[in-house]
Amino acid sequence: MAEPLPSAPDYDGAHLRHVLTSAASSLGISGFSNRLNLPEASIAVVILADGLGEQLLARYTGHARFLGSAWRDMDRARVLDTGTPTTTSASLASLGTGLSPGQHGLVGYDVYSPQLQRVVNMLGKWDEEVIPEQWQPHPTVLETAEAAGARVLTASRGKFRTSGLTRAVLRGGEHRGANRIEHRFASAAEWIDEARGGSTATRSGAPQPLLVYLYVDELDKTGHSQGAGSADWLKMLESLDSAAADFVTRLRTRFGSQVSVVLTADHGMVNIAEEKRIDISEDVELLQGVSYTAGEPRFVQLMSDQPEAVAQRWRDRWGDDAWVMTKAQAIDTGLFGPIDGDVSGRIGDVLVALRGDHAIFHTERTGTDPLKMIGHHGSLTRAEREVPLLQL
């Protein structure tokens, strides 16, 4: 008997999509709602630690004493839900726009484009014919906050300044790039100090609101290559913890209660053993009736004009190890949230969300390099979809 479908993400409650909008509202910027009740401030910083799921942080707080102290404080820590699928492009789009995947349209890592009739990438390899501002036309939180009078900064890697994902969902404000975690934090702190005119400067009237988005991708990158919890991954967690502690101390010393700093993540991560990474490229039965594969190894999207038949074949093969559903079932369940008109065509006709400790690859399309990845995410297990929200 097929397993019941997973519950829909809590898009209207404790959800990642409300973090940046709540931070903007906490600054007094009109047009936003402080759904997460973040403290009022004139400087708000949102740190996004890519891949630092709630369960991973809970397991390794011994390597993150500063973050762990906040995580153990019930007044400073909450658990947030993420969207469908649990992948960076979809989650950062929800963070950056305040919308559900069904609205912003970044519904996976690899996504089918009905207009181009091919699969396109939503992260680091945007198709030249896909215009990010057209693919995701809704205003971003950063550009709306800037238009309302706030100064806005993104502190990230320099190469992300003009990336397709930035242009689609994080456009707006200034950008400072740095390739090391500690340099990114230092750069953000320097920008805040400069924007305030120096720590000893005084000025009449309310200060200009400052909104900072600080992105840390090292945990995710290391988790993919070495595994979450590996020695290298733990070193990255320790670096993040140290940099965050120094950053918060510096800002609190200079600006006191004017500053609000929160940390969250876009998804968790699970390690998949080599023998559980399954290549379906020569599996005639599973690919029968499938015109395109997309998605990610833990959340496979299949395009087909016979979805019921394809879904049944995949259910028969995977049993309790996967939630297999048609697009109609997923939309009815609310997995993608409300659906804008043309977004439905980007979602796979059949969706395969892995429940067990497997990952599915179609190397005929992707090449064999993804098979080397140890850490994975994308599905709707608690380990992948629950992320922390820490008030630092």
From TrEMBL:
Per its UniProt record, what Gene3D superfamilies does this chain match? Alkaline Phosphatase, subunit A
In Gene Ontology terms, what is one molecular function of this protein? hydrolase activity
Domain of life assignment: Bacteria
Q: Which InterPro entries match?
A: Alkaline_phosphatase_core_sf, Phosphodiest/P_Trfase
Q: Can you name this protein?
A: Alkaline phosphatase family protein
